[in-house]
């Protein structure tokens, strides 16, 4: 492997992980020039080196991050969706592997939520199909909770569907909520009295109940304060590191570097 | 079975927390009852059953609308469609049964000129029909206001229309008038009861099918998704 | 993995801070300083992630500058926080080494 090949592979992997490669590549190239030694000896394989740099840049997941195990958990193939004359999704492909987080981005109306609902089987596409391995957890943008039930009752209700006992479902839900900076004693307040952010946290916890293999999250952090927002990504990474396939619909561009891959729907609809 | 019961339990908890609906449920039939108590006691039996039918349908309409947002998620969590609507129906029927007991006791104590067996039958059938009626409405009319207007219209027509007219037979609570005749008029034949019973059972079956079909369509698994 | 490499893993960050305590520098030169300090050859694949981590934590600051006539390089230097961290860590380290040494001495 020549120095140029190594640098090219390194840059490609950084770009795939949504890190601007120029500065890191220049620095590595400088080091190679100064030392005069082969890149594999100095830095190791380009992809592994890129991963460890990206981890250092982002922090927090250094110990947890693993490469995707390779098995595709969700495969949406050539999805087409039209509303009347306008084509919202025009042959969109989305593949998510076990242990991978994919961010779906795009302008308002670019079909992000539509794609997710199609993947969840809640909406039929005009063309294309979706293959899912394992069970599905879905967090809708809104309306995934019942106004007149408490969080505990939500856990029991969803848990019963998954075949869990009351006690187990409640314990699992409470434990998951605790990782999201859950306000004290909110377990016994009905959902309509929860703040918007707490409701969304409940929504998110419900999506993860019963250990689903595929998680579809539709902008689940609306109303989160900054701390909870970071907790949210910690949760997403925990899911990834236990081998789940995670799709996050988002309009916040700042979080792209938190995902392993990005599907941008804007460019498609603009084409 | 345990899933259906869990849905029923949660639906009961939801209804029990909607104070406005509960107060309406408890008091509106009473208002209906006393509006006719003085001059036409036989009317008060029919009015109380209409009041119960109306309020329970309304409660079912609200319960159905509230469930729309959550049901897709429950379906994805492993519930079968029939577990969802049967659980909700069971909860509404339980509420209805709890509701008619005091009204039956009231009639038992307050009115001694009527046949109390047929009155109990009227109340039971009203509860049986009202719950799926409200749920079917919520499935067909996505907005609660529209559903409320339809309910209002049905109850108003039920009160106004001459029950002998053919169009009155199409109203869901026509049976209460028919069985009511037997309960109140001592020379009336039991044919009224049979006709009322047949009407109630057909109406019930129709609404149950409507609820089952609309739920199955709304919550069907789309064929483009293959699960492995 | 030999024992020295394992030891180094725990204190590489501090050694890098120490190397920068001797004046601002760029990656390759930091590696040379560490080697000259008797720590052996430090692979780039270990050094740069450590530098990025320190930068993210605010213990070092970096900027790109053209060296004397050569290409632009990324120069790292200690931040006030980094200097403070280095001071407190080296005191802790001295105590730790004494304890380990005492522990390993067979009476």
Taken in chain order, the helices and strands of chain A follow as HHHHEEEHEEHHHEHEEH
CATH superfamily of chain C: Winged helix-like DNA-binding domain superfamily/Winged helix DNA-binding domain
Count the E strands of chain A. Answer: 8
Q: Nearest-angstrom radius of gyration of chain A?
A: 21 Å
Nearest-integer average pLDDT of chain A: 84
Query: Within the CATH hierarchy, at the fold level, what is the topology of the largest domain in chain A?
Result: Rossmann fold
What fraction of residues of chain C sit in β-strands? 5-15%
> How large is the share of residues in beta strands of chain A?
15-25%
Task: Evaluate the radius of gyration of chain C.
Answer: 15 Å
Overall 3D form of chain C: globular
Shape assignment of chain A: globular
Protein architecture, described:
The complex is a heterotrimer of chains A (271), B (228) and C (107). About 3% of the residues of chain A have low confidence. In chain A, helix 1 runs antiparallel to helix 2, helix 1 packs across helix 4 and helix 6 packs across helix 7. Chain A has ten helices and eight strands. Chain A is 42% helix and 20% strand. Chain A has two domains: 55 residues, no CATH class; 199 residues, Rossmann fold (3-Layer(aba) Sandwich). Chain A is an alpha/beta fold and 271 residues long. Chain B is mostly helical. Chain B has one domain. Chain B is built from nine helices and one strand; from the N terminus they run αααααααααβ. By secondary structure, chain C is of the alpha+beta class. Chain C has a single domain, classed as Winged helix-like DNA-binding domain superfamily/Winged helix DNA-binding domain (Arc Repressor Mutant, subunit A, Orthogonal Bundle), CATH 1.10.10. In chain C, 65% of the residues lie in helices and 15% in strands. Chain C is built from four helices and three strands, in the order αβααββα. The longest helix of chain C has 25 residues. The radius of gyration of chain C is 15 Å and the shape is globular. The relative contact order of chain C is 0.15. The model of chain C has no long low-confidence stretch (mean pLDDT 89). The chains are: A alpha/beta (271), B mainly alpha (228), C alpha+beta (107). Chains in contact: A-B, A-C. Strand 4 of chain A pairs parallel with strand 1 of chain B.
């Amino acid at each position: 492997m020549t120095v140029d090949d190594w640098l090219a592979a390194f840059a490609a992997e950084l770009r795939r992980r949504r890190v601007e490669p120029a500065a890191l590549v220049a620095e590595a190239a400088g080091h190679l020039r100064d030392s005069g030694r082969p890149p594999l000896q100095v830095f190791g394989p380009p992809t592994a080196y890129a991963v460890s740099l990206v981890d250092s840049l982002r922090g927090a997941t250094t110990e947890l991050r693993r490469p995707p195990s390779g098995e595709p958990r969700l495969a949406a193939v050539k999805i087409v969706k039209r509303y009347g004359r306008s084509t919202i999704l025009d042959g969109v492909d989305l593949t998510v592997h076990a242990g991978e987080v994919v961010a779906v981005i795009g302008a308002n109306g670019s079909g992000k939520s539509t794609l997710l609902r199609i993947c969840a089987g809640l909406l039929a596409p005009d063309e294309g199909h979706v293959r899912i391995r394992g069970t599905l957890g879905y967090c809708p943008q809104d309306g995934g909770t019942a106004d007149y039930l408490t969080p505990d009752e939500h856990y029991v209700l969803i848990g019963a569907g998954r075949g869990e006992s009351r006690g187990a479902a409640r314990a699992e839900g409470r434990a998951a909520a605790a990782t999201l900076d859950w306000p004290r004693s909110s377990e016994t307040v009905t959902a309509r009295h929860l703040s918007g952010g707490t409701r969304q946290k409940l929504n998110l916890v419900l999506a993860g109940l019963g250990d689903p293999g595929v998680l579809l999250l539709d902008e689940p952090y609306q109303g989160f304060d900054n701390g909870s927002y970071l907790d949210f990504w910690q949760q997403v990474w925990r899911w990834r590191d236990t081998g789940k396939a995670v799709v996050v619909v988002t309009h916040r561009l700042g979080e792209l570097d938190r995902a392993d891959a990005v599907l941008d729907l804007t460019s498609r609809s603009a084409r | 079975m345990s899933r259906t019961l869990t849905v029923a339990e949660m639906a009961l908890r939801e209804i029990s927390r909607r104070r406005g609906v509960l107060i309406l449920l408890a008091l509106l039939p009473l208002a209906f009852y006393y509006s006719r108590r003085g001059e036409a006691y036989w009317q008060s039996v029919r009015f109380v059953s209409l009041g119960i039918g109306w309020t329970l349908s309304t409660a079912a309409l609200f319960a159905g609308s509230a469930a729309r947002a959550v049901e897709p998620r429950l379906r994805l969590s492993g519930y079968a469609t029939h577990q969802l609507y049967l659980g909700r129906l069971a909860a509404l029927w339980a509420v209805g049964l709890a509701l008619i007991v005091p009204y039956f006791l009231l009639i038992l104590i307050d009115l001694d000129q009527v046949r109390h067996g047929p009155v109990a039958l009227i109340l039971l059938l009203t509860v049986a029909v009202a719950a799926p009626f409200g749920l079917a409405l919520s499935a067909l009319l996505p907005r609660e206001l529209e559903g409320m207007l339809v309910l209002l219209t049905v109850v108003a027509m039920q009160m106004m229309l001459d029950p002998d007219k053919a169009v009155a037979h199409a109203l869901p609570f026509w049976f209460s008038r028919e069985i009511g005749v037997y309960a109140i008029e001592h020379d009336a034949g039991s044919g009224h009861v049979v006709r009322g019973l047949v009407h109630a059972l057909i109406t019930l079956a129709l609404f149950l099918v409507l609820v089952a079909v609309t739920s199955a369509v709304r919550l069907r698994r789309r064929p483009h998704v293959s699960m492995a | 993995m030999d024992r020295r490499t394992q030891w180094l893993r725990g204190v590489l960050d501090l050694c890098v801070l120490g190397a920068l305590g001797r004046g601002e520098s760029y990656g390759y030169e930091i590696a040379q300083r560490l080697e000259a300090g008797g720590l052996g050859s430090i692979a780039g694949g270990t050094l740069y992630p450590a530098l990025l981590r320190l930068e993210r934590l605010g213990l070092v600051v970096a900027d790109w500058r053209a060296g004397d006539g050569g290409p632009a390089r990324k120069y790292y230097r200690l931040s006030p926080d980094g200097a403070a961290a280095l001071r407190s860590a080296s005191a802790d380290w001295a105590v730790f080494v004494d304890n380990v040494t005492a522990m390993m001495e067979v009476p």
